[in-house]
């Protein structure tokens, strides 16, 4: 069953087109990677899918998310889709979290929205239980302390886990992860990837994973789309694309990733 269908998607800034005719489907439970260098249009494509383009940018073409058109819709009409169908984990958890609000209050908001959507009354005690459960779900130790903390009082890895907990709190079917591990150190990056993999697998979520890091994408995605200058230049099963690339740009990306990996394994 197709959860997301993108057809001839464009993103423009006035007369300047930044994303050109991107098309792909994402099935229920499938994991798709979007890869390419910085400025290739990966994040613009992801934000257009959920109608979160910055002011001054406009989307064209068609995006059907759970059968509902996103392109051209009013922002208020997209609110039920955000969280309820698709949720986003951003690259910089510091920017995604309000520095002036305790983490527990920030986590409470999506939990309350989900309760309203499901027609449930959520008492203060019930909310507290759900907050603790949401943090335990992402392997946060000492959730009670974390709920009372400010964003600057926890580590980068904990902030990203909390951002994932907030994204999942609304009960989405599609998780869009936009460079979710880029700002983390290598060991924390591996932990967050393992967490995402386990959560997606356990809950049967679909995943759109955006990254410039090919080894990371090869680890987590079933299929991959390679973007350059706002266009998809190659797509297919991840193993095939990364072992037998058909486009010269993909070949260059794979070669660069292999050279970097070799250099890290055999430092001089």
Q: Could you give the distance between the termini?
A: 50 Å
Low-confidence stretches: none
How many β-strands, per DSSP?
10
- What coarse outline follows from CA principal-axis ratios? globular
Strand order of the largest sheet: 6-7-8-3-9-10
Question: CATH-wise, what's the superfamily?
Answer: P-loop containing nucleotide triphosphate hydrolases
C-alpha-based Rg, rounded: 19 Å
Summarize the structure.
This protein has 11 helices and 10 strands. The protein is of the alpha/beta class.
Walk me through what this model shows.
The protein has a single domain, classed as P-loop containing nucleotide triphosphate hydrolases (Rossmann fold, 3-Layer(aba) Sandwich), CATH 3.40.50. The protein has eleven helices and ten strands. A hairpin with a 2-residue loop joins strand 4 and strand 5. The N and C termini lie far apart (50 Å). The protein is α/β, with parallel strands linked by helices. The chain is globular. It is 42% helix and 25% strand.
């Amino acid at each position: 069953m197709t959860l997301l269908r993108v057809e001839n998607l464009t993103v423009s800034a006035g007369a300047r087109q930044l994303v050109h005719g991107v098309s792909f489907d994402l099935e229920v439970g499938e994991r798709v990677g979007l890869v390419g260098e910085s400025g290739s249009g990966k994040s613009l494509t992801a934000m257009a899918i959920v109608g979160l383009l910055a002011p001054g940018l406009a989307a064209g073409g068609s995006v059907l998310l759970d059968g509902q058109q996103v392109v051209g819709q009013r922002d208020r009409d997209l609110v039920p889709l955000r969280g309820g169908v698709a949720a986003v984990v951003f690259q910089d958890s510091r920017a995604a979290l309000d520095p002036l609000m305790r983490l527990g209050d920030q986590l409470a908001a999506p939990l309350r929205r989900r309760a309203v959507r499901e027609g449930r009354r959520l008492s203060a005690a019930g909310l507290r239980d759900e907050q603790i459960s949401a943090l335990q779900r992402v392997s946060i130790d000492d959730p009670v302390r974390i709920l009372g903390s400010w964003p600057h009082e926890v580590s980068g890895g904990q902030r990203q886990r909390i951002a994932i907990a907030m994204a999942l709190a609304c009960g989405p079917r599609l998780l869009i992860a936009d460079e979710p591990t880029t700002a983390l150190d290598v060991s924390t990056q591996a932990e967050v990837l393992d967490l995402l993999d386990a959560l997606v697998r356990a809950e049967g979520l679909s995943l759109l994973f955006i990254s410039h890091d090919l080894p990371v994408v090869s680890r987590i995605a079933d299929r991959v789309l390679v973007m350059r200058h706002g266009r998809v230049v190659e797509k297919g099963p991840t193993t095939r694309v990364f072992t037998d690339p058909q486009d010269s740009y993909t070949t260059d990306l794979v070669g660069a990733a292999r050279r970097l990996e070799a250099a890290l394994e055999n430092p001089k």
